[in-house]
Amino acid sequence: MKHVPEPFKIKTVEPIKMTTLEYREKAIREAGYNTFLLKSKDVFIDLLTDSGTSAMSDAQWAALQMGDEAYAGSRNFYELEETVRDVYGYKYFVPTHQGRAAEHIMSKLLIKPDDRVPGNMFFTTTRLHQELAGGTFVDVIVDEAHDTTSELPFKGNVDLAKMQRLVDEVGADRVPYVSYETCVNMAGGQPISIANLKELRAFCDKYNIKIMLDNTRTIENAYFIQKREPGYADKSVKEIVKEICSYTDGCTCSAKKDGLVNIGGFLAMNDEDFFVAAKGEVVIYEGLHTYGGMSGRDMAALAQGIRESVETDDYIRYRVEQTNYLGELLTEAGVPHVVPHGGHAIFLDARRFLPHIDQEQFPAQSLAAAIYVETGVRTMERGNVSSGRDPETGKNRQPALELVRLTIPRRVYTQSHMDFTAEGIIRLYKQRNKINGLKFVFEPKVLRFFQARFEELTTATTPQAHLSIE
Ligand code: F0G
């Protein structure tokens, strides 16, 4: 298996604990079978998320010492503003403490009650903020994105026919913007193509609809474009990132991913009125518009992180190919997962991994818990639990994708950690019939996946048997 070597060496180490099977069985029971509720000290390899879990470089740690903690006008703000402009190209920039804060402000300013917000698949916090602002999310991603076996190279693309149907149905004035995400998280980290973005731009120009980018993983997406899209092989990732942003009107960004920092986010745009309004909101919810919930040193580390992520293409090649390496190990062993492999994570297909568990018994949640018990590796459910209940019907949304995400933090784990993870999951796959479904014992009203608690159903049941139990 081809492995791109890590383009860094290790200067500081953080020990991680190896535990026994019995220890982990107890820990997951106490955590209500929810990997979000495990204590990090009980986790061996933490693949819960790539959010805020990056290792910073020596230059970023040095930048922390250069924090200017002035309440107003910190020099790190100006440095970050200039970096965002240089890399992403937007005229105006508003810092926030993380991505969902930018989503909150944007949704509040752009969405009117009863608006429809089309997007290339939902993201949990993004959709919630759209709903809180009175809007309704409409999925306009290509159908293949909902099929874990489709090998389409750009499964994140928007289906223009779905956009047309929406506009014909409700009228363009009820569609304030398209929420366009790069390396679509819930679809398995699937990229968008420049060709699709150009087509969408032409469509939106016709109807006077904005394109707001969810810029969280654009650098990873640019690497896929370089690798897969005709005409881009000789362009640098930095050039491609700039080109992507140039077709959009602004963005929200969780800088905790591509930005190589532990906290941070921003909202950026080209429209001056929107900028003035966003600055007005940020002072209410985040802090002054020159820090927006970040300290001066956070902004310094982020500016350095953004620069490093595009300085050469070596970092991003290693990053995406490390994910691919893990995926290839699972492919060889026949473990069902989303293909093509995404940028930040490998997503196991829990429906095919655990066909004996009905979706109402949360197969992905059960699988995430079983992986922890078997290996000490922490993963995340992205399926029926994350998707929540339909506000109208009150029923579980039962999304087509019932996935477990093995999310790779940036610059944190090595090839041997990937080997260990794959070996454990392959072992579990061979005894998958022993895994049981779950039922809720505590279900929070919003973003339930974070704090929900479950109990194990004692025997695995077929969907029909499950119905008769209830
Ligand atoms: N958009 C996308 C595509 C994300 O993946 C996330 C966060 C957000 C917005 C929200 O940003 O967390 O900084 O407030 N994703 C994390 C994850 C939580 O684990 O996928 P945030």
How would you explain this protein's 3D organization?
The structure is a single chain. The chain has 470 residues and is an alpha/beta fold. It folds into 2 domains: 21-50 and 314-456, Aspartate Aminotransferase, domain 1 (Alpha-Beta Complex), CATH 3.90.1150; 58-311, Type I PLP-dependent aspartate aminotransferase-like (Major domain) (Aspartate Aminotransferase, domain 2, 3-Layer(aba) Sandwich). Helix content is 41%, strand content 13%. It is built from 17 helices and 14 strands. Strands 2-8-7-6-5 form a 5-stranded mixed beta sheet, with helices on both faces. The chain binds ligand F0G. Ligand F0G is lined by residues 49, 51, 98-100, 123, 125-126, 181, 185, 214, 216, 254, 256, 265. Ligand F0G binds at residues 49, 51, 98-100, 123, 125-126, 181, 185, 214, 216, 254, 256, 265.
Number of helices: 17
Strand order of the largest sheet: 2-8-7-6-5
Could you tell me how far the N terminus lies from the C terminus, measured between alpha carbons in angstroms?
47 Å
Could you say which small molecules are bound to this protein?
Answer: ligand F0G
Low-confidence stretches: 461-470
What is the CATH-assigned architecture of the largest domain?
Answer: 3-Layer(aba) Sandwich
Estimated helix fraction: 40-55%
Choose one word for the global shape. Answer: globular
CATH topology of the largest domain: Aspartate Aminotransferase, domain 2
Tell me the number of structural domains: 2
Mean pLDDT: 96
Count of β-strands:
14
- The CATH superfamily of the largest domain is known as Type I PLP-dependent aspartate aminotransferase-like (Major domain)
Task: Describe the main β-sheet briefly.
Answer: 5 strands, mixed
Radius of gyration: 22 Å
Instruction: Quickly name the level 1 CATH class of the largest domain.
Output: Alpha Beta
Class of secondary structure makeup: alpha/beta
The proportion of strand residues reads 5-15%
